[in-house]
Amino acid sequence: MIHGHGDDGYRYGRPISINFSSNVYGRFDWGALHQHLSQSLALIHSYPEPAAESLVALLAQKECISPESICVTNGATEAIYLIAQAFAGKKSSIIIPTFSEYADACVLHQHQMKYAFSLHEAVSEQTDLLWLCHPNNPTGLAYDQDELEHAIKRHPNTLFVIDQSYEHFTQHPLFSVSGALTYPNVMVLHSMTKHYAIPGLRLGYMTASADLLRKVTCYCMPWAVNQLAIEAGKYLLNHHHDYTIDLDTLLIETKQLQKQLETIEGITVYPTDTHFFLVCLAKYKAAHLKNYLANEFGFLIRDAANFAGLNEYYLRIATQNKHENNQLIQAIKQWQSSHS
Fold it and tell me: What is the average per-residue pLDDT within 143-167?
């Protein structure tokens, strides 16, 4: 679904001034990273390491695990497609609504697909792979960790592919890297793209037991991660204290934004465990509000109609700062009054 994701402000004839569509956090000072990468441009004249070995080593040191349990990828999306390829033709379950690339990758590699709305419904003795996003995109909800671990233990023959791309944006209990490695049937996806807001560089990694990971990495393309992405990853890990997400403030602002939206007639706001959440409109399609906000104000929201399990009345909003959130509220109220 190359053209089905959010952050599509390029479709509009005016600049996007505030992006509520992208759930990438962008509140860092990028000056030092930009300077470091500009000083590293000569690296592009050499091939990168075939499997980003130096970044793997640094991640292994940070997480106190074996490098054999880490594979660096061209964003978490590459990991999704590699896993689907490694287990081509298997029976996969996906809990919806969720990120579309799980289904796209499974269809590409001829998996037998099953869609479900809950963990209990999704997994059975016949399930080869279970794909879930934790916290989930687009709902922002995390799974009950005890329930998830219980399911993993009850179904040792099912591979649980757990995408924790938003792990740094919630206070809900999740798997640690070392904790997940205690389960031989668990593979966890991690996103430096999301954590450090570098989607243009495409950088992620997957962690699993060495035996399980080898089943996937044999399909890896050499040099999949480019030289500047590797260099950025190493720089960010070595300077991670300069790129700390103010999660307390972000979640407080999320709750405040939700409360304000709930006061607007015809809008239902759904709970979340992170900084983005679903909204449902009672009368008008999400595309109508999206186009209005983009054309009139330069504000971008995410039309969630193309998530399996949702319809054209759903949209997703990612919290920004207080001032920007207030501007969004006023713009939506103006839209509402113009249609009353």
Answer: 97
